[in-house]
Amino acid sequence: MAGSATDAVLLVVSELFTNAVLNAGGVTGFRLDAGAVAVDGASPLPPQPLPMNLTRPGGFGWHLVQNLSVDVRVQAHAAGKTVTAIVPCPTGVTRRD
Fold it and tell me: Taking the mean position of all CA atoms in its chain, how far away is CA 25?
């Protein structure tokens, strides 16, 4: 179970970074806490999910982030936007508040 939870966190980080680089003008900030991944992008526009299409590459990242996370929030601000995904923590990791 811990391995799959860790894989989910790594996949969400990878997809949010990739989306920010390809679609949001680049990554301007990053935070990783137990259970929360936040990536800042230069564009204030919200992510746009692409229709699922198995005949073309790409377009699955935003769907993966939403499916692997228990909550995803997008907050626009003067410098762009922050996408925060709440991902179930791997076993043995606790969140410090």
Answer: 15
- Taking the C-alpha atoms of residue 70 and residue 96, their distance in angstroms, rounded to an integer, is 18
β-pairing, 80-86 vs 36-41, is antiparallel
Tokens of 64: 């993966």
Structure-token pair, residue 1:
């179970």
DSSP string, the chain: -HHHHHHHHHHHHHHHHHHHHHHSSSEEEEEEETTEEEEEES--SPP-PPPP-TTSS---HHHHHHHH-SEEEEEEETTEEEEEEE-PPPTT-----
As a whole number of angstroms, the distance between CA 91 and CA 72 comes to 21
pLDDT digits (tens, 9 = 90+) for 19-59: 999 888 899 999 998 789 999 999 999 988 878 777 877 77
Distance CA 36, CA 42 (A): 20
